[in-house]
Amino acid sequence: MTKVLMNRRALLAGAAALSAGAAHAQDFPTRAVTMVVGFPPGGQADLAARPVAAAMERNLRQPVVVQNRAGAAGALGNAFVARAPADGHTLLMALSSLAVIPEAERLFGRPAPYEVSQFAPIGLVNADPTMLAVPASAPWRTLEEFVEAAKARPGDIPYGSSGAYGTLHVAMEMFATAAGIRMLHVPFQGAGPAITALLSGNIQALASAPGTLTQHVQGGRVRVLACWGAQRAPAFPDVPTFMERGSRDVEFYIWAGLLAPAATPAPIQARLRDAFRAAMQDPEALRAFEAAGSPPRYMDAPDFARFLAEDSARLVRAVQRIGRVE
């Protein structure tokens, strides 16, 4: 009898929690929603966040404010959202480095600032193959010429990244490991500052999403040598993939996706998913993605969760292969 009463109380408590969550979802959001980007303006996460935030704001009828919390290759922003109240008012526009950072910290025997399990996927915005870019003034016109120069000058050619073990760093080290070359890593706080350094000639190579390179390639300031995708990037159909050039393990995508703290009540997650779905069909948002050369690749939470798990497993294996890189 006692066990029956305990089970009944547990069922009633669960029903009450669901009812309370549904009630909160009806009122949600009650104030401005903050969409955290762990990088400075100008990078892939920021380019994804701003059109989505503007479109979600129209649907949620509350301000959706993009907040750039740059530092530690995105780890500061990621950790901030992981620890935020799970009420749906603090979200994260993350990149594929989400899974890389905790694994990299473990390589060095340091505690991870967060875990991927602390987030609930809301939806995927896009997933672009990474591109190898050099200044237009650089002497290399093909991937083979770049590799030959790097082998002749080990540790000499400077390349930029969004921070140690960030998205752009892992992509370049993946390439360097496969090619048997060594370059000089110059970390920045995000892709935006790294692109500025590439344009000024302070660095000579950069792995970057197509959307952040398009205008500079069209303006004649940047040349693209190779693509990390399994297929050529639609924005750069003449640029070969690393796979075409014989590097089967050199595959890397810069994706941007929206996440919430994992404990966010299911009814509020459902409300966010609905608003996100509407945003990914919003004409103004779609025009912004197309103008940036980064077409959307919408996935709802269940598909995004599977995508995230598969991509994270592949990137963790890549980090383990690369090992400790100072």
What does this protein look like?
With 326 residues, this protein is of the alpha/beta class. It contains 11 helices and 11 strands. Helix 1 (2-27) packs parallel to helix 9 (266-279) and helix 2 (44-60) crosses helix 9. The chain is globular and about 65 Å long. The model is unreliable at 2-6 and 13-17 (pLDDT under 50).
Question: Which properties best describe this structure?
Answer:
globular; five-stranded mixed beta sheet; 11 helices; six-stranded mixed beta sheet; disordered N terminus; alpha/beta; 326 residues; 19% strand
Tell me the series of helices and strands, N- to C-terminal. HEHEHEHEEHEHEHEHEEHHEH
Q: What strand order characterises the main sheet? A: 2-1-3-10-4-11
| N- and C-termini, Cα separation | 63 Å
Relative helix content: 40-55%
Strand content: 15-25%
> Biggest β-sheet: count, sense, barrel?
6 strands, mixed
Number of helices: 11
Q: Strand tally, please?
A: 11
What global shape is seen?
Answer: globular
Mean pLDDT: 91
> Over all CA atoms, what is the radius of gyration?
21 Å
Low-confidence stretches at least 5 residues in length (pLDDT < 50)? 2-6, 13-17
Structural class based on helices, strands and sheet pairing: alpha/beta
What's the helix and strand layout?
Elements: H1 2-27, E1 33-37, H2 44-60, E2 64-68, H3 75-82, E3 90-95, H4 100-107, E4 119-129, E5 131-135, H5 143-152, E6 158-161, H6 167-179, E7 184-187, H7 191-200, E8 205-208, H8 210-218, E9 222-227, E10 253-261, H9 266-279, H10 283-291, E11 299-300, H11 301-322
Parallel strand pairs: 1-2, 1-3, 6-7, 6-8
Antiparallel strand pairs: 3-10, 4-10, 4-11, 5-8, 5-9
Helix pairs in contact: 1-9, 2-9, 2-10, 4-11, 6-11
